[in-house]
Amino acid sequence: MRKITLLTSALAFSVMTSMSAMAAQTSITLGMQLEPPNLDPTSAAAAAIDEVVYANIFEGLTRYQADGSIVPALAKSWEISDDGLTYTFTLHSGVTFHDGTTMDAEDVKFSLDRARAEDSTNAQKRLFTGIASVDVVNPTTVSITLSNPDGGFITNLAWGDAVIVAPESIDAAANAPVGTGPFKFSRWVQGDRIEIEKNPDYWGEPIALEKATFKFISDPTAAFAAVMAGDIDAFPGYPAPENLPQFEADPRFSVIVGSTEGETILSMNNKSEKLTDVRVRKAIAHAINRQAIIDGAMFGFGTPIGTHFAPHHPDYLDLTGQSAYDPAAAKALLKEAGYSEGLTLSLKLPPPSYARRGGEIIASQLREVGIETEIENLEWAQWLEQVFRGKDFDLSIVSHTEPMDIGIYANPEYYFQYDSAAFQKTIDDLMLATDAGERTALLQSAQRVIADDYVNGYLFQLARTGVANSKIRGLWENSPTQANDLTGVSWSD
Q1: What is the pLDDT of residue 242?
Q2: What does the pLDDT average to over 193-217?
Q3: How far is CA 472 from the centre of its chain?
Q4: Which domains, from first to last, does the chain contain?
Q5: How far is CA 94 from CA 102, 137, 139, 199, 408, in A?
Q6: In contact, 107 and 166? CB cutoff 8 Å
Q7: Closest to 401 measured CA to CA, from 463, 330, 327, 457
Q8: Most Cβ neighbours (<10 Å): which of 141, 175, 258, 457?
Q9: Is residue 45 a contact partner of residue 121, using CB atoms and an 8 Å limit?
Q10: Which pTM does this prediction carry?
Q11: Sign of the C-alpha dihedral, residues 319, 325, 328, 334?
């Protein structure tokens, strides 16, 4: 009788273990290279913020889909006046924030007025400068009037910087975000992970996952070990592309390679004493062998660029020849600029492997033409403080992953401090243009201007190289915006 009891207990334990394993398939752990500085996408430019919260915790009136298309989100529909100035949005009814408060037109007005306010800290404030007024028609209808027609307005509203927040909870959003999305914030263990859980009161399509954890691992060797051990279920922005063939050969994993909006650049401080001379910036551009950087830092993953624009966009101009690798030309330009004996510049690098590895390669290439670099490896928070906000640098390397973000060059206060009246006018004209042909011409003009001015060293378009458990479905292949959208993710049997 005792033997039967033991067998029964063993069977029960086996069933419980099996049920536990099945239950585990409603949770997922994702790896991320960078920890976000905070969790309020309306307050800072760090891509890591959106990688956690976009479409998961926070939603906007519109949103990006995996294929790059823009679709309704909190706004179920809209009408545009004949003069292109007034957009009337009809909101979904019955939407609540995670704290139980109602999301309505007043929250839309609060969010957009806050983003465009004079004292706004929104990193993409330019998205909202064309708004003349935001008016509440009724709780589910909001009218937005523009100063001038803007053919990109609906797309602007899909950015993470344009999500809808509530006045009751926005002050705590940096550490305890409250949105309307299918997941709600659960816990942040600083330096380690962020946990989110299913929102049982979500207004939209139900999701499959009950819980998701974002685990921060910047070191490529540690990332490889975590994925191989199963501690990480998916690493959408995997930091060590040299490991991908090994994952491809292992049936436990799927390798996901796609495109991103990430223009990877050698950022230059255009107000740094030695870099105010366009000849020096041009010399740096000609000293760079892009393909060597792609091969050495990215193991062949990446597309060379010659301006700040994604090659997969139909309006892209291939201007790589304008800054082709030409060490002799670089040396001649430096001599012409008065640096025949060479010069020394600081090179401050954030944690991503493309920056750290690429920085060593670029330092070697610059040394060949007489430019020495003082490399300083910074943690992400340090980079944001010293380089992005403090503008205390000569050179840096970073990938700008926001979609269609060439407009950042129109902001002379942006961290590379480029101030061009000609470029600013081009972007102003672009914001007013609604004709497709005119917009193409202006976008291509903008690409030429910053290439002609050698504002930065344009390196490559960052590829999306990811690895995941082969049973996971619904992860984005491409990155039309900086997001780890989990709304369609599930496990197969």
Answers
A1: 93
A2: 97
A3: 23
A4: 24-35+177-258+464-491 (3.40.190.10), 59-172 (3.90.76.10), 262-463 (3.10.105.10)
A5: 7, 17, 10, 14, 37
A6: yes
A7: 463
A8: 457
A9: no
A10: 0.85
A11: positive
